[in-house]
Design a protein that fits this description.
Layout lengths: L5 E4 L6 E5 L4 H13 L3 E5 L5 H12 L3 E6 L2 E5 L13 E2 L4 H11 L5 E5 L10 H9 L3 E4 H4 L1 E7 L7 E3 L5 H11 L6 E4 L7 H8 L4 E4 L2 E4 L9 E3 L4 H13 L4 E8 L6 H8 L3 E10 L2 E9 L7 E2 L3 H4 L4 H9 L4 E4 L12 H11 L3 E5 L2 E5 L8 E3 L4 H12 L5 E4 L11 H8 L3
The structure holds shikimate-3-phosphate.
Shikimate-3-phosphate (S3P) binds next to helix 6.
Length: 433
């Protein structure tokens, strides 16, 4: 189906005021999944009612779980316990959501029934072998194109054998899938990651009563006798906040306060990178929200400098590279991204997509095999560009448009609803004319 939605962005002098961003996407998915596997009720407030998380809800409803909502961004999940999901009558459609597909594969591997998982055209091109291969070692049957590397993937699972597995790539989705499969294993499952990635699964599993061990970059999970449902207040998504933060930085008269943002240290690489670039950002009023740190973030217009972003910082800002590229375009000097090959297998090839689209607007960006080289021009002309069906490319281009000289038009822009349905409204409520 072709997407006719166009987003028109006129330049602005700045973003001013206070705002809360929608709930964290990663944590919202996990609340539904763990809630479904727990005993008793789980209530998630400030749940992200974006397309990806709605896909997770529909998949678990198809597995027999009673879920009410989202209503006013609250979701109520009546857990079935670890061993009472039902065989789905139809294919489970995870839409555009890689997190749904990968974590669900881990759970389905532990179920004594047959299921098939698929997704949209973009997701059917993304690699799943990194999940299905270790699940095969654990004893599940997974079948799909290219040796169960591409969806649709059929799974027939049951009681699993524990494994000790070194992840070949730094991926929280992969780590999480195997930890969830580990709940259905005969002994402790041990996962080592090459570089630390977001740890929301570990934190939430512990909060639901699972037994976990952690030593450096290695996590172990014991087969859980049972998980206990609970209330979860989902923190604001730092990945959504990042768009508004960069929008405020690159326009001249901004002063913005983003309230209630999740600042889990495995996710705050974007703040570290921007601070290194000279951004005026203050993080204050730290508090805890069900095991996740939350804070308010104040941002003021800033003169940015280029920097180098690579190594262990990359997984801590993996979803923010498109918007950090926009910051780099408006900075003085060169910015280099390295070690970011994973971006080629996200919702789009994000290295290629962001280079192509920002260059259409007047940027000077070169692609390397594992990153980008950006020559900061301090300004952009504006113009017309495309989203590649990728929510983060659409929103990064829109923010670039705020700082451009003339109007910017983003084609195929309905994908912003994947993670930030109220994106346009949020910009309009903050922008100075
Ligand atoms: C996610 C992990 C990241 C991220 C994605 C959400 C998660 O993927 O890009 O948007 O919720 O675990 P990888 O860890 O696989 O790179």
């Amino acid at each position: 189906m072709s997407d006719q939605t166009r987003l028109k962005i006129t330049p602005t002098r700045g973003l001013r005021g206070e705002i809360s961003v929608p709930g964290d996407k990663s944590i919202s998915h996990r609340a539904v999944m763990l809630g479904a596997l727990a005993q008793g009720e789980t209530v998630a407030t400030n749940f992200l009612s974006g397309e990806d998380c709605l896909a997770t809800i529909r998949c678990f409803q198809a597995l027999g779980v009673e879920i009410d909502g989202p209503r006013d961004d609250n979701v109520r999940i009546r857990g079935r316990g670890l061993f009472a999901l039902q065989e789905p009558e139809d294919v489970l459609d995870t839409g555009n959501s890689g997190t749904t597909m990968r974590l669900l594969l881990g759970i389905l591997a532990g179920q004594p029934f047959f299921s098939v998982v698929t997704g949209d055209a973009s997701l059917r091109r993304r690699p799943m072998g990194r999940v299905t291969q270790p699940l095969l070692q654990m004893g599940a049957v997974c079948m799909g194109r290219d040796g169960a590397n591409y969806a649709p993937i059929a799974v027939s699972g049951g009681r699993l054998r524990a494994i000790s597995h070194q992840l070949p790539v730094a991926s929280a989705q992969l780590k999480s899938a195997l930890l969830l499969a580990g709940l259905f294993a005969d002994e402790r499952t041990i996962i080592s990651e090459p570089i630390p990635t977001r740890d929301h699964t570990e934190r939430m599993l512990a909060a639901f009563g699972a037994s976990l061990s952690r030593e450096g970059r290695t996590v172990g999970v014991d087969p859980a006798p049972q998980l206990q449902g609970r209330e979860i207040t989902v923190p604001g998504d730092i990945s959504s906040a990042a768009f508004l933060i960069v929008g405020a930085l690159i326009t001249p008269d901004s002063d913005l306060l983003v309230r209630g943002v999740g600042v889990n240290p495995t996710r705050t690489g974007v703040l570290d990178a921007l601070s290194r670039m000279g951004a005026r950002i203050t993080v204050r009023d730290f508090r805890d929200s069900g095991g996740e740190p939350v804070a308010d973030i104040r941002v003021q217009s800033s003169m940015l400098q280029g920097t180098v972003i690579d190594g262990p910082l990359i997984p801590r800002l993996i979803d923010e590279i498109p918007i950090l590229t926009v910051a780099a375009v408006f900075a003085r000097g060169e910015t280099v991204f390295r070690d970011a090959t994973e971006l080629r297998v996200k919702e789009s090839d994000r290295l290629s997509a962001i280079r192509m689209e920002l260059n259409r607007l007047g940027a000077d960006i070169h692609e390397t095999p594992d990153g980008l080289l950006i020559r900061g021009t301090g300004r952009l002309a504006g113009g017309t560009c495309r989203s590649h069906g990728d929510h983060r490319i659409a929103m990064a281009a829109a923010i670039a448009g705020l700082g451009a000289a003339r109007e910017t038009c983003i084609e195929d822009a309905s994908c912003t609803s994947v993670s930030f349905p109220a994106f346009t409204g949020a910009l309009n409520s903050l922008r100075l004319e």
